[in-house]
Amino acid sequence: MRKSERAAFIMAKLDELYPEVPIPLDHRDSYTLLIAVLLSAQCTDKRVNQVTPALFDLAADPQTMIRQTPEAIREIIRPCGLSERKAQNIYDLSHILLAEHGGEVPASFEALEALPGVGHKTASVVMAQAFGVPAFPVDTHIQRLANRWKLTKSKSVGKTEKDLKKAFPEKHWNKLHLQIIFFGREYCPARGHDPALCPICSVVG
C-alpha cells in the first residue's frame, strides 16, 4: 500500500469513527484555551480539565491573572506538574498580552511562540482550535501513530509535522489532529497494543 493509499484509508476510517470531534481541553475562549494547552505539557488532558475550573474561577483573563501571584497560581495548578515554571509562564505571558497585544491572544504563530512557555505545538493547537488556521500539532501520541502507520520515518516532531501535512489535504488538518488523538486513546495505545485488533494498524501495518 502506497503512502497516499494509507493516508486516504486512515482519513476515511477516522471520519467513520469520529465524524465530530470535540476539543479535549475545556476552555471558554482563546485565552483560557492557551492556558489549558500550556498546562497540558507533560500532563493528561483529563488532569488539566480537573484543574482549570478552579484556575479560571480565580482568573479567566489576563487582566485578572496579573493581579494574582505566581505562588497562588502554582497552588492551583500543582497537580499538572512543572507547576512552578508553568505558573510563572502564565503570569508573565498575561503581562505580555496586556502590554503588547491589547489583552488579546494574537492569531499569529510568531507572536504566540514568543510568549513564555509557548512552543510550536502549543501555538499550533491555539491557531487551529481558537482561530481555525490550518495547523497539524504533533505531540507524542500523534508522533507514535504516524510512525506506526508508516506516514513518517522520523522521530522528530518537526519532520513528522511536515510529513503529515504532505500526506493529508490542508483543509482536514485541524480535524485530523483531534481524530488521531481520540483514536490513539481508544484503539492504539502506547502499551498493550494488538495491531491485529486495531481498525487502522490491521490494514496499514
TrEMBL record:
HhH-GPD domain mapped to chain residues: 39-186
Cofactor(s) of this protein: [4Fe-4S] cluster
InterPro entries hit by this protein: DNA_glycosylase, Endonuclease-III-like_CS2, HhH-GPD_domain, HhH_base_excis_C, HhH_motif, Nth
One GO term (biological process): base-excision repair, AP site formation
SMART domains assigned: ENDO3c
Recorded GO MF terms: 4 iron, 4 sulfur cluster binding; class I DNA-(apurinic or apyrimidinic site) endonuclease activity; DNA binding; DNA N-glycosylase activity; metal ion binding
Keywords: 4Fe-4S, DNA damage, DNA repair, DNA-binding, Endonuclease, Glycosidase, Hydrolase, Iron, Iron-sulfur, Lyase, Metal-binding, Nuclease
Cofactor, how bound (note): Binds 1 [4Fe-4S] cluster.
Protein origin, superkingdom: Bacteria
EC number in record: 4.2.99.18
Chemical reaction(s) catalysed: 2'-deoxyribonucleotide-(2'-deoxyribose 5'-phosphate)-2'-deoxyribonucleotide-DNA = a 3'-end 2'-deoxyribonucleotide-(2,3-dehydro-2,3-deoxyribose 5'-phosphate)-DNA + a 5'-end 5'-phospho-2'-deoxyribonucleoside-DNA + H(+)
TM helices/strands, residue ranges: none
Family annotation (PANTHER family): A/G-SPECIFIC ADENINE GLYCOSYLASE/ENDONUCLEASE III, ENDONUCLEASE III
Family: Belongs to the Nth/MutY family.
Task of the protein: DNA repair enzyme that has both DNA N-glycosylase activity and AP-lyase activity. The DNA N-glycosylase activity releases various damaged pyrimidines from DNA by cleaving the N-glycosidic bond, leaving an AP (apurinic/apyrimidinic) site. The AP-lyase activity cleaves the phosphodiester bond 3' to the AP site by a beta-elimination, leaving a 3'-terminal unsaturated sugar and a product with a terminal 5'-phosphate.
The protein's name: Endonuclease III
Native source organism of the sequence: Acanthopleuribacter pedis
Organism placement in taxonomy: Bacteria, Pseudomonadati, Acidobacteriota, Holophagae, Acanthopleuribacterales
Gene that produces this protein: nth
